[in-house]
Recover the amino acids of this structure.
Protein backbone atom coordinates (compact mmCIF):
# COMPACT_ATOMS: atom_id res chain seq x y z
CA UNK A 1 0.00 0.00 0.00
CA UNK A 2 1.30 3.42 -0.88
CA UNK A 3 1.55 5.87 1.99
CA UNK A 4 0.17 9.38 1.68
CA UNK A 5 3.51 10.91 2.64
CA UNK A 6 5.22 8.93 -0.13
CA UNK A 7 2.76 10.29 -2.64
CA UNK A 8 3.44 13.86 -1.57
CA UNK A 9 7.18 13.19 -1.53
CA UNK A 10 6.98 12.12 -5.16
CA UNK A 11 4.96 15.21 -6.07
CA UNK A 12 7.52 17.41 -4.33
CA UNK A 13 10.34 15.77 -6.26
CA UNK A 14 8.55 16.47 -9.53
CA UNK A 15 7.30 19.99 -8.74
CA UNK A 16 10.08 21.51 -6.67
CA UNK A 17 13.14 19.39 -7.29
CA UNK A 18 12.72 19.04 -11.04
CA UNK A 19 12.70 15.26 -11.16
CA UNK A 20 12.38 14.31 -14.78
CA UNK A 21 13.28 11.65 -17.26
CA UNK A 22 15.75 13.36 -19.55
CA UNK A 23 15.19 11.22 -22.60
CA UNK A 24 13.61 8.22 -24.21
CA UNK A 25 16.01 7.31 -26.99
CA UNK A 26 15.15 4.82 -29.70
CA UNK A 27 18.22 3.14 -31.16
CA UNK A 28 17.71 2.08 -34.77
CA UNK A 29 20.06 -0.09 -36.82
CA UNK A 30 20.62 1.16 -40.36
CA UNK A 31 22.56 -1.86 -41.62
CA UNK A 32 19.58 -3.02 -43.66
CA UNK A 33 19.70 0.29 -45.60
CA UNK A 34 23.20 -0.33 -47.02
CA UNK A 35 23.39 0.37 -50.73
CA UNK A 36 25.98 1.69 -53.22
CA UNK A 37 23.66 4.32 -54.67
CA UNK A 38 23.72 7.36 -52.40
CA UNK A 39 20.23 8.57 -53.32
CA UNK A 40 18.69 5.19 -52.61
CA UNK A 41 20.72 4.88 -49.41
CA UNK A 42 19.52 8.26 -48.14
CA UNK A 43 15.95 7.46 -49.06
CA UNK A 44 16.09 4.07 -47.30
CA UNK A 45 17.58 5.69 -44.19
CA UNK A 46 14.80 8.26 -44.10
CA UNK A 47 12.04 5.65 -44.55
CA UNK A 48 13.53 3.23 -42.05
CA UNK A 49 13.66 5.87 -39.32
CA UNK A 50 10.37 7.56 -40.14
CA UNK A 51 8.61 4.20 -40.00
CA UNK A 52 10.32 2.75 -36.95
CA UNK A 53 10.04 5.91 -34.83
CA UNK A 54 6.61 6.93 -36.05
CA UNK A 55 4.99 6.63 -32.62
CA UNK A 56 7.96 7.47 -30.42
CA UNK A 57 6.94 11.02 -29.55
CA UNK A 58 3.27 10.14 -29.13
CA UNK A 59 4.04 7.25 -26.78
CA UNK A 60 6.50 9.39 -24.83
CA UNK A 61 3.85 12.04 -24.32
CA UNK A 62 1.27 9.43 -23.28
CA UNK A 63 3.55 7.99 -20.61
CA UNK A 64 4.45 11.47 -19.43
CA UNK A 65 0.78 12.34 -18.94
CA UNK A 66 -0.16 9.10 -17.28
CA UNK A 67 2.59 8.94 -14.68
CA UNK A 68 2.92 12.69 -14.27
CA UNK A 69 6.71 12.87 -14.69
CA UNK A 70 8.10 15.10 -17.46
CA UNK A 71 9.97 13.28 -20.21
CA UNK A 72 12.04 16.18 -21.49
CA UNK A 73 13.34 14.80 -24.78
CA UNK A 74 12.54 12.06 -27.24
CA UNK A 75 15.51 11.11 -29.35
CA UNK A 76 16.77 8.69 -31.95
CA UNK A 77 20.21 7.15 -32.28
CA UNK A 78 21.35 5.25 -35.36
CA UNK A 79 24.17 3.01 -36.55
CA UNK A 80 27.37 5.05 -36.97
CA UNK A 81 26.91 6.51 -40.43
CA UNK A 82 30.48 5.75 -41.58
CA UNK A 83 29.60 2.04 -41.29
CA UNK A 84 26.82 2.31 -43.86
CA UNK A 85 28.50 4.70 -46.27
CA UNK A 86 31.49 2.56 -47.22
CA UNK A 87 30.26 2.11 -50.79
CA UNK A 88 29.31 5.72 -51.53
CA UNK A 89 31.48 8.76 -52.10
CA UNK A 90 29.72 11.42 -50.09
CA UNK A 91 27.91 10.84 -46.78
CA UNK A 92 26.21 14.27 -46.74
CA UNK A 93 22.87 13.15 -48.24
CA UNK A 94 22.58 10.72 -45.32
CA UNK A 95 23.02 13.64 -42.91
CA UNK A 96 20.17 15.45 -44.61
CA UNK A 97 18.03 12.30 -44.53
CA UNK A 98 18.66 11.92 -40.78
CA UNK A 99 17.69 15.51 -40.12
CA UNK A 100 14.52 15.22 -42.20
CA UNK A 101 13.58 11.97 -40.46
CA UNK A 102 14.08 13.62 -37.06
CA UNK A 103 11.78 16.47 -38.07
CA UNK A 104 9.20 14.09 -39.52
CA UNK A 105 9.03 12.02 -36.34
CA UNK A 106 9.04 15.12 -34.10
CA UNK A 107 12.00 14.07 -31.96
CA UNK A 108 14.33 16.60 -30.33
CA UNK A 109 17.62 15.16 -31.61
CA UNK A 110 19.00 12.38 -33.75
CA UNK A 111 22.51 11.05 -33.13
CA UNK A 112 24.81 8.75 -35.00
CA UNK A 113 26.60 10.78 -37.65
CA UNK A 114 29.56 8.96 -36.25
CA UNK A 115 32.74 7.05 -36.92
CA UNK A 116 34.65 4.60 -34.73
CA UNK A 117 38.30 5.20 -35.56
CA UNK A 118 40.20 4.27 -32.39
CA UNK A 119 42.56 1.98 -34.31
CA UNK A 120 42.49 3.49 -37.76
CA UNK A 121 40.34 5.23 -40.34
CA UNK A 122 38.71 3.71 -43.40
CA UNK A 123 38.18 5.92 -46.43
CA UNK A 124 34.52 6.21 -45.37
CA UNK A 125 35.56 7.31 -41.87
CA UNK A 126 37.80 10.01 -43.32
CA UNK A 127 35.06 11.24 -45.63
CA UNK A 128 32.63 11.37 -42.74
CA UNK A 129 34.99 13.33 -40.49
CA UNK A 130 35.75 15.73 -43.33
CA UNK A 131 32.03 16.27 -43.92
CA UNK A 132 31.15 17.00 -40.28
CA UNK A 133 31.55 20.82 -40.38
CA UNK A 134 29.24 21.12 -43.37
CA UNK A 135 26.83 18.41 -42.16
CA UNK A 136 26.36 19.93 -38.71
CA UNK A 137 26.14 23.51 -39.91
CA UNK A 138 23.47 22.66 -42.49
CA UNK A 139 21.25 20.49 -40.28
CA UNK A 140 19.28 21.36 -37.16
CA UNK A 141 18.67 18.25 -35.08
CA UNK A 142 21.51 15.96 -36.02
CA UNK A 143 24.43 15.18 -33.69
CA UNK A 144 27.80 13.66 -34.52
CA UNK A 145 30.48 11.80 -32.61
CA UNK A 146 33.88 10.31 -33.29
CA UNK A 147 35.55 7.66 -31.15
CA UNK A 148 39.30 8.33 -31.39
CA UNK A 149 40.65 6.10 -28.64
CA UNK A 150 40.06 3.00 -26.58
CA UNK A 151 41.80 1.15 -23.81
CA UNK A 152 42.43 -1.81 -26.12
CA UNK A 153 43.46 0.12 -29.23
CA UNK A 154 45.24 3.22 -27.92
CA UNK A 155 44.75 6.71 -29.38
CA UNK A 156 44.50 7.39 -33.09
CA UNK A 157 46.41 10.66 -33.21
CA UNK A 158 45.72 11.18 -36.92
CA UNK A 159 42.00 11.19 -36.12
CA UNK A 160 42.63 13.47 -33.14
CA UNK A 161 44.32 15.96 -35.48
CA UNK A 162 41.41 15.82 -37.95
CA UNK A 163 38.87 16.27 -35.15
CA UNK A 164 40.61 19.42 -33.86
CA UNK A 165 40.41 20.92 -37.34
CA UNK A 166 36.79 19.84 -37.78
CA UNK A 167 35.82 21.53 -34.50
CA UNK A 168 37.51 24.80 -35.53
CA UNK A 169 35.91 24.73 -38.97
CA UNK A 170 32.50 23.93 -37.49
CA UNK A 171 32.78 26.80 -35.00
CA UNK A 172 33.56 29.17 -37.84
CA UNK A 173 30.65 27.94 -39.96
CA UNK A 174 28.24 28.54 -37.05
CA UNK A 175 29.87 31.83 -36.01
CA UNK A 176 26.52 33.67 -36.05
CA UNK A 177 25.26 31.29 -33.34
CA UNK A 178 28.37 31.49 -31.10
CA UNK A 179 29.74 28.25 -32.56
CA UNK A 180 26.61 26.24 -31.75
CA UNK A 181 27.61 23.51 -34.21
CA UNK A 182 30.33 22.39 -31.78
CA UNK A 183 27.67 21.62 -29.16
CA UNK A 184 26.49 18.85 -31.48
CA UNK A 185 29.87 17.12 -31.84
CA UNK A 186 31.51 14.86 -29.27
CA UNK A 187 34.96 13.30 -29.51
CA UNK A 188 35.08 10.10 -27.46
CA UNK A 189 37.47 7.62 -25.97
CA UNK A 190 35.91 4.23 -25.11
CA UNK A 191 32.53 5.30 -26.52
CA UNK A 192 29.63 3.11 -25.42
CA UNK A 193 27.21 1.59 -27.92
CA UNK A 194 23.98 2.21 -26.02
CA UNK A 195 24.25 5.78 -24.78
CA UNK A 196 20.89 7.59 -24.90
CA UNK A 197 22.38 11.03 -24.22
CA UNK A 198 23.26 13.59 -26.84
CA UNK A 199 25.35 14.66 -28.56
CA UNK A 200 27.16 11.35 -28.31
CA UNK A 201 24.35 8.86 -28.87
CA UNK A 202 24.74 6.21 -31.56
CA UNK A 203 23.30 2.73 -31.98
CA UNK A 204 26.41 0.57 -31.83
CA UNK A 205 27.21 -2.21 -34.32
CA UNK A 206 26.77 -4.76 -31.51
CA UNK A 207 23.15 -3.75 -30.95
CA UNK A 208 20.05 -5.36 -32.40
CA UNK A 209 17.62 -3.90 -34.94
CA UNK A 210 15.96 -1.54 -32.52
CA UNK A 211 15.85 -0.80 -28.78
CA UNK A 212 14.54 1.88 -26.48
CA UNK A 213 16.71 3.24 -23.73
CA UNK A 214 16.06 5.83 -21.09
CA UNK A 215 18.31 8.44 -19.53
CA UNK A 216 17.25 9.63 -16.10
CA UNK A 217 18.05 12.89 -14.41
CA UNK A 218 17.46 14.48 -11.03
CA UNK A 219 20.33 16.53 -9.55
CA UNK A 220 17.76 18.67 -7.73
CA UNK A 221 16.39 15.64 -5.88
CA UNK A 222 19.87 14.61 -4.74
CA UNK A 223 20.70 18.17 -3.64
CA UNK A 224 17.51 18.37 -1.58
CA UNK A 225 18.17 14.99 0.05
CA UNK A 226 21.67 16.14 1.04
CA UNK A 227 20.30 19.35 2.53
CA UNK A 228 18.64 17.15 5.13
CA UNK A 229 21.97 15.64 6.26
CA UNK A 230 24.14 18.77 6.50
CA UNK A 231 27.27 18.23 8.58
CA UNK A 232 26.88 14.44 8.63
CA UNK A 233 29.80 12.17 7.71
CA UNK A 234 30.49 11.00 4.17
CA UNK A 235 29.12 7.58 5.10
CA UNK A 236 25.75 9.26 5.51
CA UNK A 237 26.22 11.34 2.36
CA UNK A 238 26.96 8.26 0.26
CA UNK A 239 24.01 6.37 1.69
CA UNK A 240 21.68 9.30 1.07
CA UNK A 241 22.78 9.64 -2.56
CA UNK A 242 22.32 5.90 -3.08
CA UNK A 243 18.78 5.90 -1.72
CA UNK A 244 17.85 8.88 -3.85
CA UNK A 245 19.46 7.48 -6.98
CA UNK A 246 17.50 4.27 -6.45
CA UNK A 247 14.20 6.15 -6.56
CA UNK A 248 15.17 8.24 -9.56
CA UNK A 249 16.24 5.16 -11.46
CA UNK A 250 13.04 3.30 -10.66
CA UNK A 251 11.18 6.03 -12.50
CA UNK A 252 13.52 5.54 -15.46
CA UNK A 253 12.98 1.79 -15.39
CA UNK A 254 9.20 2.22 -15.29
CA UNK A 255 9.27 4.60 -18.24
CA UNK A 256 11.61 2.32 -20.19
CA UNK A 257 9.42 -0.76 -19.66
CA UNK A 258 6.26 1.11 -20.59
CA UNK A 259 7.86 2.61 -23.69
CA UNK A 260 9.25 -0.75 -24.74
CA UNK A 261 5.88 -2.44 -24.38
CA UNK A 262 3.85 0.27 -26.11
CA UNK A 263 6.30 0.66 -28.99
CA UNK A 264 6.76 -3.09 -29.40
CA UNK A 265 10.53 -2.65 -29.29
CA UNK A 266 12.99 -4.37 -26.91
CA UNK A 267 14.12 -2.48 -23.82
CA UNK A 268 17.77 -1.49 -24.09
CA UNK A 269 19.15 0.07 -20.94
CA UNK A 270 18.56 2.70 -18.32
CA UNK A 271 21.38 5.22 -18.15
CA UNK A 272 21.85 6.10 -14.48
CA UNK A 273 22.80 9.67 -14.88
CA UNK A 274 22.61 12.89 -13.03
CA UNK A 275 22.13 15.22 -15.97
CA UNK A 276 21.82 18.89 -15.06
CA UNK A 277 19.96 21.65 -16.90
CA UNK A 278 20.61 25.40 -16.75
CA UNK A 279 17.48 25.81 -14.59
CA UNK A 280 17.94 26.80 -10.96
CA UNK A 281 17.66 23.75 -8.70
CA UNK A 282 18.90 21.29 -11.33
CA UNK A 283 22.66 21.51 -10.87
CA UNK A 284 25.34 18.87 -10.23
CA UNK A 285 27.76 21.64 -9.13
CA UNK A 286 25.33 22.61 -6.38
CA UNK A 287 25.37 19.02 -5.08
CA UNK A 288 29.15 19.25 -4.70
CA UNK A 289 28.75 22.61 -2.97
CA UNK A 290 26.11 21.11 -0.68
CA UNK A 291 28.78 18.62 0.44
CA UNK A 292 30.73 21.55 1.88
CA UNK A 293 32.63 23.24 -0.93
CA UNK A 294 32.36 27.01 -1.20
CA UNK A 295 32.48 26.81 -4.99
CA UNK A 296 32.57 23.89 -7.36
CA UNK A 297 36.12 23.59 -8.71
CA UNK A 298 37.90 24.33 -5.45
CA UNK A 299 40.09 21.76 -3.68
CA UNK A 300 37.95 18.79 -2.71
CA UNK A 301 35.80 18.91 -5.84
CA UNK A 302 37.35 15.80 -7.37
CA UNK A 303 36.77 13.79 -4.19
CA UNK A 304 33.21 15.04 -3.87
CA UNK A 305 32.47 14.15 -7.48
CA UNK A 306 34.06 10.70 -7.08
CA UNK A 307 31.75 9.94 -4.17
CA UNK A 308 28.70 11.26 -6.01
CA UNK A 309 29.43 9.38 -9.21
CA UNK A 310 30.00 6.08 -7.45
CA UNK A 311 26.99 6.40 -5.13
CA UNK A 312 24.68 7.22 -8.05
CA UNK A 313 25.70 4.00 -9.77
CA UNK A 314 25.47 1.89 -6.61
CA UNK A 315 22.01 3.20 -5.83
CA UNK A 316 20.74 3.01 -9.37
CA UNK A 317 22.03 -0.35 -10.42
CA UNK A 318 19.61 -2.32 -8.26
CA UNK A 319 16.67 -0.28 -9.51
CA UNK A 320 17.00 -1.34 -13.11
CA UNK A 321 17.19 -4.67 -14.89
CA UNK A 322 19.71 -3.40 -17.47
CA UNK A 323 22.04 -0.53 -16.84
CA UNK A 324 24.34 1.00 -19.42
CA UNK A 325 25.14 4.11 -21.37
CA UNK A 326 27.26 6.75 -19.72
CA UNK A 327 25.87 6.16 -16.22
CA UNK A 328 27.25 8.64 -13.70
CA UNK A 329 27.24 12.35 -12.93
CA UNK A 330 27.60 14.74 -15.87
CA UNK A 331 29.51 18.00 -15.54
CA UNK A 332 28.68 20.01 -18.68
CA UNK A 333 29.61 23.61 -17.99
CA UNK A 334 27.05 25.53 -20.04
CA UNK A 335 24.18 23.24 -19.02
CA UNK A 336 24.59 23.60 -15.26
CA UNK A 337 23.91 26.85 -13.45
CA UNK A 338 26.37 26.02 -10.65
CA UNK A 339 29.13 25.18 -13.17
CA UNK A 340 28.43 28.41 -15.04
CA UNK A 341 28.76 30.44 -11.83
CA UNK A 342 31.90 28.55 -10.78
CA UNK A 343 33.57 29.03 -14.17
CA UNK A 344 32.58 32.72 -14.25
CA UNK A 345 34.17 33.47 -10.88
CA UNK A 346 37.35 31.57 -11.72
CA UNK A 347 36.82 28.71 -9.27
CA UNK A 348 36.46 26.19 -12.07
CA UNK A 349 39.28 26.04 -14.60
CA UNK A 350 39.88 23.81 -17.60
CA UNK A 351 42.64 21.99 -15.70
CA UNK A 352 40.37 21.29 -12.74
CA UNK A 353 37.60 20.14 -15.07
CA UNK A 354 40.08 17.74 -16.64
CA UNK A 355 40.94 16.34 -13.21
CA UNK A 356 37.26 15.97 -12.37
CA UNK A 357 36.65 14.00 -15.56
CA UNK A 358 38.93 11.26 -14.18
CA UNK A 359 36.24 10.34 -11.68
CA UNK A 360 32.92 11.23 -13.31
CA UNK A 361 30.84 10.19 -16.25
CA UNK A 362 32.21 11.31 -19.61
CA UNK A 363 34.45 14.36 -19.79
CA UNK A 364 35.16 17.93 -20.82
CA UNK A 365 31.67 18.92 -21.79
CA UNK A 366 30.14 22.10 -23.18
CA UNK A 367 33.15 24.26 -22.42
CA UNK A 368 33.63 27.53 -24.27
CA UNK A 369 37.24 28.49 -25.00
CA UNK A 370 38.55 31.59 -26.79
CA UNK A 371 37.89 31.86 -30.52
CA UNK A 372 41.59 32.15 -31.31
CA UNK A 373 42.36 28.73 -29.75
CA UNK A 374 44.25 26.86 -32.47
CA UNK A 375 43.12 23.57 -34.00
CA UNK A 376 46.27 21.97 -32.60
CA UNK A 377 45.38 23.10 -29.08
CA UNK A 378 41.85 21.70 -29.47
CA UNK A 379 43.40 18.42 -30.66
CA UNK A 380 45.79 18.43 -27.69
CA UNK A 381 42.85 18.91 -25.30
CA UNK A 382 41.19 15.92 -26.98
CA UNK A 383 44.40 13.87 -26.71
CA UNK A 384 44.73 14.58 -22.98
CA UNK A 385 41.13 13.61 -22.33
CA UNK A 386 41.41 10.48 -24.49
CA UNK A 387 44.53 9.50 -22.53
CA UNK A 388 42.58 9.69 -19.26
CA UNK A 389 39.91 7.43 -20.73
CA UNK A 390 42.38 5.01 -22.27
CA UNK A 391 44.49 4.55 -19.15
CA UNK A 392 41.61 4.44 -16.68
CA UNK A 393 39.43 2.17 -18.78
CA UNK A 394 36.52 4.59 -18.79
CA UNK A 395 34.55 6.61 -21.28
CA UNK A 396 35.77 10.16 -21.70
CA UNK A 397 34.75 12.79 -24.18
CA UNK A 398 35.43 16.32 -25.34
CA UNK A 399 32.79 18.79 -26.43
CA UNK A 400 34.49 22.19 -26.54
CA UNK A 401 33.38 25.31 -28.35
CA UNK A 402 36.17 27.59 -29.60
CA UNK A 403 33.74 30.51 -29.71
CA UNK A 404 34.45 32.62 -32.80
CA UNK A 405 35.42 36.20 -32.01
CA UNK A 406 35.10 35.67 -28.25
CA UNK A 407 37.68 36.30 -25.56
CA UNK A 408 38.05 35.11 -21.98
CA UNK A 409 35.21 36.61 -19.93
CA UNK A 410 32.76 36.82 -22.85
CA UNK A 411 29.75 34.50 -22.89
CA UNK A 412 28.35 32.11 -25.46
CA UNK A 413 24.58 31.85 -25.46
CA UNK A 414 22.90 28.72 -26.84
CA UNK A 415 19.59 28.78 -25.00
CA UNK A 416 17.37 25.86 -24.02
CA UNK A 417 18.99 22.78 -22.53
CA UNK A 418 22.37 23.82 -23.96
CA UNK A 419 22.45 26.95 -21.80
CA UNK A 420 25.20 29.56 -21.72
CA UNK A 421 28.85 29.55 -20.74
CA UNK A 422 31.63 31.97 -19.91
CA UNK A 423 34.65 31.65 -22.18
CA UNK A 424 37.47 30.23 -20.05
CA UNK A 425 41.19 30.33 -20.82
CA UNK A 426 43.33 27.61 -22.37
CA UNK A 427 47.09 27.42 -21.88
CA UNK A 428 48.85 29.89 -24.18
CA UNK A 429 51.73 27.54 -25.01
CA UNK A 430 51.57 25.69 -28.32
CA UNK A 431 51.10 21.94 -28.90
CA UNK A 432 51.43 22.15 -32.70
CA UNK A 433 54.53 19.98 -33.09
CA UNK A 434 53.01 17.36 -30.79
CA UNK A 435 49.82 17.12 -32.83
CA UNK A 436 51.68 17.25 -36.17
CA UNK A 437 53.39 13.91 -35.39
CA UNK A 438 50.32 11.78 -36.12
CA UNK A 439 50.36 8.00 -35.84
CA UNK A 440 49.04 6.08 -32.86
CA UNK A 441 49.67 6.20 -29.14
CA UNK A 442 49.89 2.49 -28.28
CA UNK A 443 47.36 0.76 -26.06
CA UNK A 444 48.45 0.72 -22.43
CA UNK A 445 49.71 -2.16 -20.34
CA UNK A 446 47.20 -3.44 -17.84
CA UNK A 447 49.42 -4.87 -15.21
CA UNK A 448 51.98 -3.07 -13.01
CA UNK A 449 49.21 -0.59 -12.22
CA UNK A 450 50.80 2.32 -10.43
CA UNK B 1 5.89 -3.57 -13.00
CA UNK B 2 2.94 -4.50 -15.17
CA UNK B 3 0.25 -2.02 -16.09
CA UNK B 4 -2.31 -1.77 -13.33
CA UNK B 5 -5.66 -0.16 -13.32
CA UNK B 6 -5.28 2.04 -10.28
CA UNK B 7 -4.57 5.72 -10.20
CA UNK B 8 -3.85 8.31 -7.56
CA UNK B 9 -5.78 11.57 -7.50
CA UNK B 10 -4.11 14.32 -5.48
CA UNK B 11 -5.69 17.63 -4.60
CA UNK B 12 -3.67 20.50 -3.15
CA UNK B 13 -4.75 24.03 -2.30
CA UNK B 14 -6.71 26.21 0.07
CA UNK B 15 -9.67 24.56 1.76
CA UNK B 16 -13.20 25.43 0.72
CA UNK B 17 -16.62 23.82 0.75
CA UNK B 18 -17.43 20.96 -1.57
CA UNK B 19 -13.97 19.93 -2.80
CA UNK B 20 -14.51 16.23 -2.15
CA UNK B 21 -18.05 16.42 -3.50
CA UNK B 22 -16.95 18.02 -6.75
CA UNK B 23 -14.01 15.69 -7.33
CA UNK B 24 -16.06 12.61 -6.45
CA UNK B 25 -18.79 13.77 -8.81
CA UNK B 26 -16.40 13.93 -11.77
CA UNK B 27 -15.19 10.43 -10.93
CA UNK B 28 -18.73 9.12 -10.48
CA UNK B 29 -19.83 10.53 -13.83
CA UNK B 30 -16.92 8.70 -15.47
CA UNK B 31 -17.79 5.39 -13.83
CA UNK B 32 -14.77 5.35 -11.55
CA UNK B 33 -14.85 3.76 -8.11
CA UNK B 34 -12.97 5.37 -5.21
CA UNK B 35 -11.00 2.72 -3.33
CA UNK B 36 -9.44 4.83 -0.61
CA UNK B 37 -9.42 8.42 0.46
CA UNK B 38 -7.30 10.38 2.88
CA UNK B 39 -7.38 14.05 3.67
CA UNK B 40 -5.59 16.49 5.95
CA UNK B 41 -5.97 20.21 6.48
CA UNK B 42 -2.94 22.09 7.78
CA UNK B 43 -3.29 25.84 8.37
CA UNK B 44 -6.21 26.00 5.95
CA UNK B 45 -4.18 24.12 3.34
CA UNK B 46 -6.04 21.17 1.92
CA UNK B 47 -4.24 17.92 1.00
CA UNK B 48 -6.22 15.01 -0.34
CA UNK B 49 -5.24 11.69 -1.83
CA UNK B 50 -7.70 9.34 -3.49
CA UNK B 51 -6.86 5.90 -4.80
CA UNK B 52 -9.25 5.12 -7.63
CA UNK B 53 -10.03 2.03 -9.67
CA UNK B 54 -9.66 2.50 -13.42
CA UNK B 55 -10.68 -1.02 -14.38
CA UNK B 56 -14.12 0.02 -15.68
CA UNK B 57 -13.82 3.64 -16.76
CA UNK B 58 -16.29 5.03 -19.27
CA UNK B 59 -13.75 7.40 -20.83
CA UNK B 60 -10.07 7.44 -21.80
CA UNK B 61 -7.48 8.44 -19.19
CA UNK B 62 -6.71 11.66 -21.12
CA UNK B 63 -10.29 12.89 -20.90
CA UNK B 64 -10.53 12.20 -17.20
CA UNK B 65 -7.26 14.04 -16.69
CA UNK B 66 -8.53 17.02 -18.69
CA UNK B 67 -11.77 17.12 -16.68
CA UNK B 68 -9.95 17.00 -13.35
CA UNK B 69 -7.48 19.67 -14.44
CA UNK B 70 -10.38 21.88 -15.52
CA UNK B 71 -12.10 21.38 -12.18
CA UNK B 72 -8.84 22.29 -10.45
CA UNK B 73 -8.65 25.55 -12.37
CA UNK B 74 -12.29 26.33 -11.53
CA UNK B 75 -11.75 25.71 -7.80
CA UNK B 76 -8.30 27.29 -7.66
CA UNK B 77 -6.73 23.96 -6.67
CA UNK B 78 -4.10 21.70 -8.10
CA UNK B 79 -5.82 18.45 -9.03
CA UNK B 80 -3.80 15.67 -10.59
CA UNK B 81 -4.35 12.09 -11.58
CA UNK B 82 -1.41 9.76 -12.08
CA UNK B 83 -1.20 6.03 -12.64
CA UNK B 84 -0.25 4.37 -9.36
CA UNK B 85 2.81 2.62 -10.85
CA UNK B 86 4.95 5.72 -10.46
CA UNK B 87 4.48 5.75 -6.68
CA UNK B 88 4.89 2.01 -6.35
CA UNK B 89 8.07 2.10 -8.41
CA UNK B 90 9.63 4.83 -6.32
CA UNK B 91 8.66 3.64 -2.87
CA UNK B 92 8.40 -0.13 -3.02
CA UNK B 93 11.00 -2.71 -3.87
Amino acid sequence: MIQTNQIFETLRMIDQEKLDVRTITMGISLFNCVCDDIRRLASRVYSRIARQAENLVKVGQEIEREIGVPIVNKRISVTPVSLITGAVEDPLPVAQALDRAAKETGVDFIGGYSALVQKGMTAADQRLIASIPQALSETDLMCASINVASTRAGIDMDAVRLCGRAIKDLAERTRDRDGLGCAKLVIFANAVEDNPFMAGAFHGPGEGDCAVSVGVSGPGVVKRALEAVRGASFDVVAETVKRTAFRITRVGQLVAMEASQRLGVPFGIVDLSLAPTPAIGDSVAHILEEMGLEKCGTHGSTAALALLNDAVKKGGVMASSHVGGLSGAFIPVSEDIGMIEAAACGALTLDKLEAMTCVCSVGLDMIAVPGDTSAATVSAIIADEAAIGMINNKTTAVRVIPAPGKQVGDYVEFGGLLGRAPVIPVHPFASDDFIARGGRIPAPLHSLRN
Amino acid sequence: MTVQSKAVVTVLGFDRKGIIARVSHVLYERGINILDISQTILDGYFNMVMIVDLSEPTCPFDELQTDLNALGRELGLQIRIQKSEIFEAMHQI
Observations:
- The first helix of chain A runs from residue 4 to 15.
